[in-house]
Amino acid sequence: VFKRFVEIGRVAFISFGPHAGKLVAIVDVIDQNRALVDGPCSGVRRQAMPFKCMQLTDFVLKFPHSARQKCVRLAWEKENINEKWAATRWAKKIEAREKKAKMTDFDRYKVMKAKKMRNRIIKHEMKKLQKMASKKGKKPEKSEKPEKSEKAQKSEKVQKAPKAQK
Question: Which is nearest to 55 in space by CA: 13, 5, 9, 8?
Answer without folding.
Answer: 13
